[in-house]
Amino acid sequence: MTSLPTEEKINRHGLPLPSAGENEPRQTPEQRSCGEDNRTNMNSFSRDVQVRSMEQTVKHAEKYLGEICSLLASYTRKTAKLRDKADLLVAQLYDFSSREDPELQIGLKNLAEDLAMVQDYRQAQVERLETRVVAPLKAYGDIVKNKRVDLKKFSTDLNKELKELQKLEKIRLRNPADLQSIAEVNAQKASNKAQHSIRQLEETITDFQRQKLEDIKMIFKDFITVEMLFHAKALEVYAHTYHNLEAMDIQKDLELFSGRIRMPDTPDGRLDTPLTGYSSPLMSRYPGPPLASPRGQSLRSTLPSTTGPNHRQQHSQYPDTVRRARSNLQRQRGMEDEEPDGEEEYEEVDEEEEEEIYESEIEEGQPTSRQSYAAQYAQMRRWQK
After folding, report:
1. CB contact at 8 A, 83 and 119
2. For a Cys staple, 137 with which of 69, 205, 245, 269, CB 3.0–4.6 Å?
3. How far apart are CA 318 and CA 66, in angstroms?
C-alpha cells in the first residue's frame, strides 16, 4: 500500500508553509553549555542554602546551650556556697544556744539541727544538678565540634565537585574528545560523592536536632524535679521548725533572767549571789546547759554522713539518713576537737550513739514535743527497724 501524501498548508500566495519545527532556532554547542552551566549553578546555589541552614542550626546550638550550661553551672556553685554559709550559721546557733536559758536553748538547738538537715538535702540538690543538668549540657561542646567537622567535610566535597564541573566546561570549549570524556568521568565521580555526602549530612544533622530536642526536654525536667524535691523536703522540715519556735515560752526564760538580776529584799541587807541564792521551780525543771564535750560540739553528730563512695546512692531516693560527717562542719568552723585515740577523722555516728544522744536529751529535761524534725526522723527510723 502506498501512503497518501500529506496535505501541505499553503499561504495566500500559494506557497507552502514550513512544517512544525523548521522555524525553531538550533542551539549551538556554546548555548547548550550555557544551559548546563545554569543548571549546575542552580544546584550549587540550593546546596549552599542547605549547608548554611545546617551551619546555622549547629551555631545556634553551640551558642545558646553553651550559655545555658555556664549559667546553670554558676547556679550550682552558688547553691553550694549557700549550703556552706548555712553550715556556718548552724555552728553559730549551737554556740549561741549553749549560753542561753532553757527555752531559748531548746529552740535554737532544734533550729540548728533542722537547718543542718536541710543542708544535707541541699547537698543532694547540688550533686544532682551537677550530674543530671550541667554534665549533659557540657557534653554538647564535643557534640557540636563533631558536627562542625562533618560540615567541613561536606563543604570540601562540594567544592571539589564544582571544580571538576568547571574543568569540564573549559575542556568542552576546547572540544578535544579524549580529554572531555576523562573530565566527564571525573565530574560524575565528584558529583556522586557530593550527593552521597549531602544525604549523609542531612541524616546526621537531623539526628543531631532530634537528640538536642530530647536532651533539652529531659535536662530541664530533671532540673525542675531536683528543685521540687529539695523545696518539698525543706518546706516539710521548716514547717516543723516554725511550730517549734512558736511553742517557745520566752516568759519562762525572762523569769529566770529576772530572778538572777533582782536584788532580794533582806532585813540585814545581805545579798545572795545569783547562782547560789536564787531557787525557783523553773530552775529545778530546767537544768543548766550541759558543758559542751568534743562529741557535743560536732555540728551534725545526730545526722548521718553524706560523704564517701555511696553518697550519691544515698541521695538518689532522698536520703534514708540525713546526716553528714562531723568533721565537715568542724573544719568550716575552724575547730580542732580532740578525738579519742584510734578514732578516724571522718568517723560516722552510728545508730547506737544516736540513740544515746537523744535519750540523754530527754533525760536532761527536753520535752519530747519540742524535739527537732531531725530528732523525730531519727527516732522514726529506729522504730521502723
Report:
1. yes
2. 69
3. 30
